[in-house]
Structures are given as structure tokens and as C-alpha cells.
Predict the structure.
Amino acid sequence: MSSWRSRSQQSNSSRISDEQINDLVSKLQMLLPETRIRNNDRVSSAKVLQETCNYIKNLHREVDDLSERLAELLETTDMSSSQAAIIRSLFM
Amino acid sequence: MASTPSSSSSPSPSQPKARKKPGQTTSPPPPPQTKWRTGTQERLYSRRLVDALQATRDRAQPPESVGSRAVKEAADSALAMTARGQSRWSRAILFNRNSCRKRVLVKAGGKIRRNRRKHQAIPPATEEAGTTSGVLKERKVKERLKKLGRIVPGCKKLPAATLLEEAADYVAALEMQVRTMRALAEALSAAAVSVPEEEEMEIAEQGS
């Protein structure tokens, strides 16, 4: 407890305990596909944050690609006729 | 034991108020991994997405085709609404939609300037390598946290713990968005393949 107090006196921004942050970082680590497979305790929080940034950027890029694809598909297909088929397939 | 002027909550037996209250029946929110992977969430989102896409197509003038950016915005708005405003990033997405486009442009200009300043700020950090490794690691972590705050919408000035929670929720939500959009694209392309075949069969019947 004394070491935690001295750390909080050094940096003004860490009013929240380091344990809480480590806990959240490990939760984030469980979400990322790469670090989850390794599942080491040696993955530092900086590395997890870096992986998170990269992963979110990758997901954004996938969303952009899928948006392009969907935009093209929307032009060609008539939603009203195939809408029943779409909803059926989505509910499966 | 001297009195500790600690601002954050520390579990001490002398404070039962922070502990369990017998009157409360609300359970803590489910972790983002499970929350965004339930079948109901996916179905909710996919239905919202289909509606939003149809609305976008109706709103777009017939000569102009639906652009990919409009599709992405519709998908993001649908995703934010499926979050039911429980997370900061979802509220930020919805509020940014309503604001005028000028604000978005100003933000983009501000971001470019900020990036340049960041490039100037990084060399001074490496010059101070004489400090203890713990402080250096903290600085690295803070840098990465700021970077994350810029990527997740509406989380630029959040404290670390809140930012990490928002990021976890955002990652799980994005995964669901990608899954759903991919499934929709597959379904649409499959429908596009089958419909021309039916038309060909009709033409063949009429011809014979």
C-alpha cells in the first residue's frame, strides 16, 4: 500500500489504482485475437494498447471494404424482392 | 495507522456502505465479449442495418448511386443505436451525425496539426532516457493510451480506466459489425446470383 501511495504522489494523473488499470488491460488482452492465443502474463500493457490500436484500425478497414462491397451490391440488387431471403438467412 | 488521504475507493472493513446493499437487484453489466456476441444483438443490429441501408438508398437520388461512405455511416449509426447509448463512443457517433459537416472538417484540420506536433514531441521523450525505466514505460503507456483515445470516437479526454472500458466495448462491437456486414454481403451476393438465373428461366419459357 505504501508503494501505491508513493506512485500516486509522483504522477498526478494516476488517481485510479494501477491494479484497476492492469485488470482492464488484461480484459482488453482477452478480446484481442493475437494476445489471447499467446495468453502470457509477460505481455506488457504498452504492447496490449499497441495491439488494440492496430486491431481497431484493421476492423475499420474491414468495415470500409465491406461498405464498398455493400454499396455495389445495393446498386444491383432490388432490396424489396430479395429482402425476405436476406432476413431469413440472417435469422439462421 | 495514520489516516490516509486517499481519494480512490479502497476496500476497508470500516466502510460497509460501499459493500453489497440488500435492496439492489441490478446485476453488473455483462462483459463486452459476451454482450456483443449474443444472437439477439446480432439480429437486432442486422435488422437495423437493413432498414438503415434501405433508407439510405431511398434517400439517395436515383442517378447517384449509394456511396460507400453513406453505407459506412449508416452501419456506424445502426451500431451506435444498438448500443442503446450505454457507451460513450456510441453517443459520440450519434451526436457527430447530427452536427453540421463544418465541424467535422474543422476537427480534421485540427487532427492534422496535432499529428505534426506529436512528431516534434516524440524526440524530446527519447532524449530523457536517463530517467528510471519505470517512468519511461509509463510515458510509453500514456502515449499509447492517447493514441487509443483518438481512435475510439468520443474518448479523447477520458481517464485511463474509462478509456480502456470504452475500447473493450468498441472492439467487441466492431467485431459484431464486421460479422454482420459480411453475412449481409454474402446473402446479397448469393441473392444476386440466383435472381438472374430465375430471369433466364422465365425468358427461356417465354421463348419456347
